[in-house]
Every structure is written in C-alpha cells, then in structure tokens.
Write a structure and sequence with these properties.
There is one protein chain. With 359 residues, the chain is an alpha/beta fold. It folds into two domains: 44 residues, no CATH class; 281 residues, Rossmann fold, CATH 3.40.50. It is built from twelve helices and ten strands. Helix 4 links the parallel strand 5 and strand 6. Helix 6 packs parallel to helix 8. The N terminus is likely disordered.
Length: 359
Amino acid sequence: MPTSQTLRPGGGWRPAALLVKLGPFGESGLRLVRRTMPWEWRDVASQPLWMVAALVLALVVRAQRRGRWDPRACRVGLRGRTAVVTGANTGIGKFVALDLARRGARVILACRSEARGSAAVQDIRQRSGNDNVHLRILDTSSLASVRKFAAGILKEEKQLHILVNNAGASGLARSITEDGLELSFATNHVGPFLLTNLLLDLLKRSAPARIVNVSSANHWYGEVNFSHFHGNNLNYRMGKVYSNTKLHNILCTNELALRLKGTDVTANSLHPGMVMTEVMRNYNWLLRFLFNLVGIFFFKSSEEGAVSTIYCAVAEETEGITGKYFDGDCSLVLPSPSARDPALARKDFEFCDQLVSNL
C-alpha cells in the first residue's frame, strides 16, 4: 500500500498518511486517509532551530529591560539629605537604599525583620562606603508599629527629604489584623498611607522633598470597594486583592499631590516593571517555580527594577513633577481610568484618613 511520508525533526521518515483504494471491486481511485501523528517532547527538542530562536528572543528582551534612564549616569548628590525606604532589606527597596547611600544620603531602612534588616545595613554600608545607613523596625501591617516608627523618626531626625513607600506583599492569605483590617490592605496601603501622613510636617519643613509610592501595573485589574478594607466582598484569586491595593496607592498619591500643592513636596507613584523579587513568596511552589522560570529570561532583576523608583526619588528630570504615574521605563504614562478619577481619589483619601483616625 502506498504511503505519504514526512521528515521527522532531527532526521528520519515516518508515515503521515495512507493511500487506500476506493470501491468494493478494486475500481480505480485513491482516497487519502490522514493519521493523527503522536506529538512527543523529543520531536521538539530534537529540532535545534526553535531553541536557538527562543534563546535569541530571550536575549533581545533581556537586553531591552534596561530603561532609558541610567542611575549610574545621574550625578545628583544627596550629602546632607535624609531618606526613609520601607521594605529595604531585600529586592527593589534594598537597591534603592543602596543607590541613595552611594549618593551620600543618610538612609534609614524601615524593615519588619531585625535580622534581615541588620544584614542589609551592613551590606549597604560596605558596598556604598557610607556608614550613615541605619535600621528602624517597621511592620506596615500594624498601625501601632507605624505610629511607633514615625514617632521615632520625628524625635531623632531634624529633616526628611525622601520617603519611599516600597514595602508590600502579594498573595497573602485571608486574614484580619489586630486593627480589624484585611492583611493585604493594611500592609500595602493603610500602613503606608498612615506613615506618609505622620511624616508630612517633617517633609514640608525639609522641602524640597519627594514622596515615592511603589504601585504596580496590576492596578488596572483593581477595583474600589471600601468594604474591602475590613476583608468583606474580596476575591482572593489571581492576585486580585493585591491589584485592589495598588489602585488605592495611585488614587491616594494623586489626591495627596493636590493637597501638597505649593509646599514644594511632590508625590508620585510608579510601576517598577516585571521584577524578580520576593513578591511571590506567599504563593504556592508551582506558581513560584513558573514565575522564576519565566523571569530568568524576561523579567528585570531587583537592581533593574529599582531604577524607576530611584528616578522618581532623585532625578533632575522629575524635579517639580507631582501627582503623576511612571512606568518601569521611567516614562510618564497614564494609569487606568479609575486611577485618574479625581472624585474617586478624593473620596478614597478621605475614607483612609477617617479610617486611620478611628483606629
């Protein structure tokens, strides 16, 4: 019986179809009968072309991860300036603190873990050559911790020029804090909101000063529902809670910028890009594995992810800019329509202000 053949990847032929006779008495005519070919991993792996193409694509994407602004080319010095960076013991926050220390600033690392924070302080001091780097304990999920931290800063520091609200977490389990707040909302938004407001007078006295709030492009998937703050009506699938908190970050930053008009204190929010950090540490092992596997080729490192935050904190190009949203390429971009709603921003800010006043 005649057959049609195809070339196997990597060499060798195999049948792809059968030609069979038509008719009960052997009449002339042939009918093509397709046979489903079994797909095997070795068939793909034995063909090097796709692997080479994928590697080239990954290298191209990796080379393009760097933004248009290079902090190493920025000559802005910060000697005599004081900065606070939350969540600075690892990831983006640590590299932001390192950059500020290299510029000569007095840098205060606000960290939840004393052990990890102390290790980060020693590492930053050694790498920057700046011994004026210090640790203060802060857990943004606890309003008592936030108030204690802020009281210490107000007592010890005569000035504050840069506040970077970087601390945050994704994938936290459903939980209510001692303040009656949903854990993700307390950690990612309410704590940073209260901290900023407690330090506002010091920032104003130290002007020009900058407030930088690290948000996320995930805010596009977020929604505003004030019952969320107490853990009600929340969808915990696919990082939805995290997205909601990041939307609140931008809304309150925009409203804060309006309220700070004329004070020479600016407030901006940003998306750092897709970054290989510990943000996925609260997800199951499979999601972490996939995230890290893809991230090796396509995501930014923590050092690269810190660039847009540093840009907002020190760059001459961002001087005087306020109430804006930057992407991971250090470009001014529009956030989601909800994040651009001034009435919603005002309502959100007032709700959060009243919330922390009552707790």
